[in-house]
């Protein structure tokens, strides 16, 4: 990987860093790596549910991005472009391992109308003995998310963990806005089924 950069990542825009990287400045690319490695790792981990492999795939995504950088046309944001590379790397890994999620769903056949503000995580304040309860709840939520198909796991992470808007998710994956909403609806429904006791006590 490129050598460490002395530049403060907050001082330089992605566009400037990409242009410098395209000119062969490895330190500029290292700033981009530092800026986005946490988010890329989080995405790969939530998709494949394997910590060691997720780090390897994140690194592979950055290596591929570095090699493909000369062809980057600036018609999308750098993170959107990088995310798609990491997405493809992760799905290649999943196909090779033949990992299947629970309850595959045909996005095109759904007839649901999804409210933009629908909940995806349990509501309500934690119980008084919150330390252990929250740890157990967090573990249950992670296990439930892991049972979703990669496609539905992905939109839940982008929406609920990264806090992206529907339009941003559609641009990142990429897919239609309707597909994003139907996948979120289905993922939320599956989580509610698996965590029904939590939802019932939180209302």
Describe this structure in words.
The chain is elongated and about 55 Å long. It folds into two domains: 12-112, RNA polymerase sigma factor, region 2, helix turn helix motif (Rna Polymerase Sigma Factor, Chain: A), CATH 1.10.1740.10; 116-203, Winged helix-like DNA-binding domain superfamily/Winged helix DNA-binding domain (Arc Repressor Mutant, subunit A, Orthogonal Bundle), CATH 1.10.10. The chain is built from nine helices and no strands. With 203 residues, it is an all-alpha fold.
Look at the structure and give the CATH class of the largest domain.
Answer: Mainly Alpha
Parts with pLDDT < 50 across at least 5 consecutive residues: 1-7, 99-132
Please identify which CATH superfamily of the largest domain we are dealing with: RNA polymerase sigma factor, region 2, helix turn helix motif
Count of separate structural domains: 2
Structural class by helix and strand composition = mainly alpha
Number of helices, counting only DSSP H or I runs of 4 residues or more: 9
Average pLDDT:
77
User: Outline, from the CA principal axes?
Assistant: elongated
Strand segment tally? 0
Radius of gyration computed on alpha carbons: 19 Å
The helix-strand sequence is HHHHHHHHH
Distance between the termini: 49 Å
- Going by CATH, the architecture of the largest domain would be Orthogonal Bundle
Portion of residues in beta strands equals under 5%
Using the coordinates shown, work out and report the CATH topology of the largest domain: Rna Polymerase Sigma Factor, Chain: A
What can be said about the biggest beta sheet? none
Roughly what percent helix?
Answer: 55-70%
């Amino acid at each position: 990987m490129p050598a460490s950069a002395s530049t403060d990542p907050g001082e330089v825009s992605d566009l400037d860093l990409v242009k410098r990287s395209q000119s062969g400045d490895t330190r500029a690319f290292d700033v981009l790596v530092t800026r986005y490695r946490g988010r890329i790792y989080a995405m790969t981990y939530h998709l494949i549910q394997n910590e060691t492999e997720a780090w390897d795939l994140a690194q592979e995504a950055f290596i591929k991005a570095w090699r493909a950088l000369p062809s980057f046309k600036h018609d999308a944001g750098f993170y959107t472009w990088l995310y798609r590379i990491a997405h493809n790397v992760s799905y290649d890994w999943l196909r090779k391992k033949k990992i299947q999620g629970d309850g595959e769903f045909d996005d095109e056949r759904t007839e649901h109308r999804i409210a933009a503000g629908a909940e995806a995580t349990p509501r309500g304040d934690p119980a008084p003995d919150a330390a252990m309860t929250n740890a157990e709840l967090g573990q249950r939520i992670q296990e439930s998310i892991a049972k979703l198909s990669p496609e539905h796991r992905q939109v839940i992470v982008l929406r609920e963990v990264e806090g992206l808007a529907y339009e941003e998710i559609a641009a990142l994956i990429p897919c239609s806005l309707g597909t994003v909403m139907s996948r979120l609806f289905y993922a939320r429904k599956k989580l509610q089924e698996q965590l029904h006791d939590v939802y019932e006590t939180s209302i």
